[in-house]
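Appendix B.2, paired examples.
Example (i):
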Amino acid sequence: MADVVVASSTNSIVYPPVADAWATPPNLPEYATARETFSWQQAEALLKLPRANGVNQATICLDGHLEATDEAPKASGVMLKDKPALIWLSQTGAREVFTFEALSKLSNQFANTLQTLGVKKGERVFVFLERVPELYAAIFGILKLGAIAGPLFAAFGPEAILDRLADCEACVVITSPALKPRLDAIRAQVPSLRHVLVLTQYAEQRGENAQSALLHANDLALEPLLAQASDAFEVPHTSPDDPSVIHYTSGTTGKPKGALHRHGAVVAQSLTARWVLDLKPTDVYWCTADPGWVTGTSYGMFGPWSLGVTQVVAEAGFKPETWYQILQDEKITVWYTAPTAIRMLMKAGNALPAQYEFSALRHLASVGEPLNPEAITWGRQVFGGKTFLDTWWQTETGAMQIVNLPCLPVKPGSMGKPLPGVTPGILDDKGQLLSAGEEGHLVLRASSLGGSSTLGPDATTPGAITCDERHPSFFKHYWQRPEVTQSKFKGGWYYTGDRAWQDADGYYWFVGRDDDVINTAGHLVGPFEVESALVEHPAVAEAAVIGKPDPERLEIIKAFVSLKAGYQPSEALSKEIQTFVRTRLAAHAYPREIAFLESLPKTRSGKLMRRLLKARELGLPEGDTSTLEE
């Protein structure tokens, strides 16, 4: 039997609150009092909820700003409708600006177009587009109509598309000529699909024959439909419990599960954008996540736009030079990105960012998987002493839960502290609370996840969690998976599937997923601590570790390592890295095997796919790979 794990941080450094260096105080100046006095009515009041039409995310993010005045100090008397909402940087180098009014009108045209095609409330409309302005307008148009929006990654292949469309019985897909062949390959297997709307303008601008994509009787060119549609739309009454967006989350085996979210989630998304990202009216914000990932909707749409903040969207993929150029030229002030992207920037070296100027940048945050202390140290070196604040949450939670706040000291490698309104716990296998320093299952107290809200639901769904059992942003249920939904809740707790521990100061520390923890010679070892030690070695850019079966130790730790430029794999380097980790952790917690790879498999949202490495190492089925980065 494995011994009880008494966890300890491998990093004793504590950085001061990032807000200490700011000219203006943070939106949340004091943590302890806010946690003691918090109620969800306060968050609802900040958004002036409910509105005349209830709680609709599109109304709150777009239409609600059309009669408001910009609160930015230098914009006295300027109507918010005329403020840039979206600054779009195309992959061809074009730059287009959409005001809140322009984005609202375009979303109205989408809502009217879908209504004309017979789309009803609650039907599922999927958006399979590159990261273009119409992607965002389409999602908002779907929400205004009362339908359910399903954003899809542009990199999805036919099988991934089929899994999602067939599972939810999609009625309409909005796509482009470049992506449509992948949809055509499986559309015969989705009998519910009535129309495919094809956005042709960008293909035509590139000189491509976009009309050739209209192959089927129910294929419709999108632009003529939008041109005929009114840019005014009356949004029907929307309950906070009405479904809004569905995001699919993948497990090790089986088909992806559709986590269905609700319009009321905007309460938590807006509050966390205000408190954690510290968004203010003067900010220019960049969230690098695609809307195909929950961060791309929660914090690439709903959070910032509910606050009337200008944000940048870049169509092109990751390239260090491009990203640094965007930070500089667009004068980004708040940047929310993924740890994998940060490590890839690290891999490109420190000479490159030295060529750019980041004086406008005041606040940096990360999401997707734990941020290694080494990445935080690097960020401080490159971005003028500014500290990346890591945030923890899940597809199912819909918004941040445990975070590093601008008003609190930062312990590199820590998840941070729970937000007001969130009560985590660490449980053993019998469901008993563990003491500080003991590792176990990370759970969230279900009975405190939103019971003080005044915006109660007016509908229930089989398999749903009742309103007084969940945080406002919590998912409604997994689509057509009531048993799986209910299996996440036991004894009044929501089981996250993560393992963690809490220190004496109330900070939480991520260990790994339940199925990632390694049992080596009776010692439980979390992958994150080993990976953090690995990337502290000067040669290592990225690292992932797995447990490999061993006849003597049950499992040994095997590491997969990607090296920085200028280093080459060798037996000598492997032994050097092993010694380096062993001296920092323990004799049982170093990798006994190291494999060097050009790059590590990751999801498109930047999460390391350890289970894929393990499946390949052991010759096991790879499971769902629909989110695998190409």
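Example (ii):
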Amino acid sequence: MAGLTDRLSGACAIATDLSGVRTTSAICASLATHLHQTIPYTRAWLVVTEGEDVLEFGATWSPDGPVEEYPVTEHFDERARANRIVRRLLLHDRDIGFLALELDPGFELDPITDQLLTSMGALVVTALGSVSRHDEGERRRKELTEIIEIGRSFAAVTNARDLCRAIAERAARLVGAESCFVATSHPRRNTVTAEPPGFGVRSEEIGEFRFPVDSSEGGIDALRWLEPFYSNSPESDIRFSSVITDAYRPLNLLCAPMRAKGETVGFLFAADRPAGFDHKTARLLGAIAPQAAAALSNAQLLEAAESRAQREALLNRITTSVRESLEIDAVLPNTVRLLGESLELDRCFVAFVDRTRRIVSVIHEFHVPEVASTVGEFPMASYGTALVNILERGEIVAVNEADRDERTEPFYEKILKPLGVRSLMYVPVPTEHRLWPVLGFSQVRRTRQWTDEEIEFARAVANQVAVAMRQAQLYDRERSEARNRALLNRINRAVRASLDVDTILETTVEELGTALQVDRCFVLAPGPFTATVESATVRFEFCKPGIASVMGLKVPVRNRAREGPVGMIEEPLAISDIAENPRLVSSRKAQLLTLTETRAMLSVRAIYGDQVLAILELNQCFEARVWTRDEIDPVGGGAAQTASGLHNAILFR
């Protein structure tokens, strides 16, 4: 057995070696080299089983032999025996493992050896703490390096969609999660929206949700939450109650707020970590969340600026298109196409609301190939009075989720659901025209969160469409007035050129029928029609092909209306839709109109002095027609010219 000096020398050598070690293997190697000088043994074991500041470790060796490491989960009999001593390792009075020695046969433990063994245990504990701190420092240095590199990789991506994919993937790999997604916050609506694409999860299926906001136990105001929070049983955690759905049920969930410039711009969700989440993973995710927030905020600002520039360019193109053409039927198709393509809409259309007929007609439309067309007519009543009232006030209706919004509830099942509409925007066009136009945007393949910028842009486009319609109306009025003047001139020339009654009447009905594009135009003449005359025979008629003729029929001269005020004899009688109220005419007249399939009529008397010399009647068959002042006035002028010509022809005859 070595002397006391040699034993102390071995202990000093161990103390010297352990003071600078950086690995657990070096600790064991030092003990394997010098421990037998202090204590004679045949086999030694070092096991560290628990401790926040030290490592879990297991190793065995023989004097001057190789160190063999093994998992600490393997069973080792820690009980002392006749030739085995076990010394517990204590760190801050906490048992973290043991050092066991199989002593040489015949060696008896004396007080000096016992004291040396206690000193060795203390040195080992100190060395283990040093190794642990060194390893922890190295680990943190690597983590910091990785976090910095991740932040740089985020800054290199300027497309928000690509950035969301990169953030989700790098975050999931950093914390060892199987899935991850980015969700942006909307403080005004107090909602959070999962942004596609995610990593290992279809964030589109998660959509928009709300965090619980209350002061009760477990409730949080998530939009002001500053620190990461997690749950390894999220289905029973109230903080994640709105995130968990039938389509999304993660085993565990970690959320880190993404804050930039003092505001929460979104949240980073990691899920399904095999070992569950802990404070360490929460700290890691919280470390990259600010960098992700800054990158996402910058990308959104850049995209917003680009979108604003694109919208301005698009508005300029639409404005130029409006100014270059006075034909509204040429402006509107181009407008909906530009809007649909530029805003990535599934469908864009212009609908005209006919307040008289109570019909909504979709006429001009753009839609992607895989989406059905909506061109056609829809009853105005189907949309509900609430929606119509909102639009009549000039307010834009922007609906993110059509199946959940109360404004679309009246017509969702009958109109929107069959068309597959998931999000929509209706933009009223300010106009005094009889046909009230509304711009319509809709998404079918996905839901869409309409932004304030998109709504304001839609309003600006609607104003340009209103300008186009106003210009077109002025142009149409000028053309209409020119056509009316030309019409009256033709009738006047025909009247002055002939004193033949038949020529005058035939020319009048032909010119009026052709100019106003009615289905039928006829005249009851010649008069004068006295108070005793009840009916007259139709002698001259303009009639389109396919329209029933009234030539030779006896038609009532007077309108003995069964309802409503009886007009002065000089006033035109204009009925837009006789089917809506047949009592505006006599029963005999109503029967005749039904027989000839007439829906709308305009009757004007040709009066000379106080005598009715002729009655001009224009008919629209099969469909209603609202008679405008631009149509009634030229018919009245033609009737006056006809009356003058008939008076002269009767005098000549």
